[in-house]
Design a protein that fits this description.
There is one protein chain. The chain is an alpha/beta fold. The chain folds into 2 domains: 118 residues, Rossmann fold, CATH 3.40.50.2300; 96 residues, Arc Repressor Mutant, subunit A. The strands form 3 sheets. It has a 5-stranded parallel β-sheet, sandwiched between helices. The chain has a 4-stranded antiparallel β-sheet with strand order 6-7-8-9, with no helix packed on it. Strand 8 and strand 9 form a beta hairpin. Helix 1 packs across helix 5, helix 2 runs parallel beside helix 3 and helix 4 packs across helix 8. The longest helix has 17 residues. It is globular and about 55 Å long.
Amino acid sequence: MIVDDEQAIRDALGRKLRREGYDVTLCSDGIEALDAFQINQPDLVVLDIVMPGGMDGLAICRRIRDVADTPVMMLSAQAITEEDVIIGLNAGADEYLIKPVRLNEFVARVQALMRRAQMMNADSDQRYDDGYLSIDLHRRHVHVNETKVHLTPTEFKLLAVLMENAGRVVSQRDLLEQVWGREYMDDVYYPRVYISQLRRKIERDAANPVYILTEHRIGYRFEKQPPASRA
């Protein structure tokens, strides 16, 4: 589903995806988008950030996140800063793309985001539970102190890669390739921003992490902790 108040943009993106074999729903505002989302249950949503009618793309994204883990790509008309990414992450976005959109890059990023979400639906017996943090990759459940934590598909994939390599350092380059795909190798700040967001969700103290540790100038590693009582 593509949501953009500029008809020329949504039509161009829609035509490109249809040529690639996708079924596409086009929406021009937030109300139409939320109605279409409920009816069609799309596999991926592309949202323009600036929207008319008092409901921008971030607000639409939050509403979607209330009911579904559907991957969400945000479109921005200006250069994206780390602060923009953090705001989008807090709203539940998985991805950003800058307008004007290059159609081939757009398709590549849609495909990468779809692969990311599909990989999280694959069977896995990986589980972790130390009494405080509990992760079940097969069921896609993460609990902190027995409270379920919502992760976006990208955040979950990032945690899964780190957990599957527990005790070993995963380089930033490897994280970019395994979590986002080769299309993202130039987005070097992505791992840092997403790791920061993930720490805020699973660590007792994000400023002093014990699960996701930084190896300066190298990458990150997931460190298992001894069993602890729930507090």
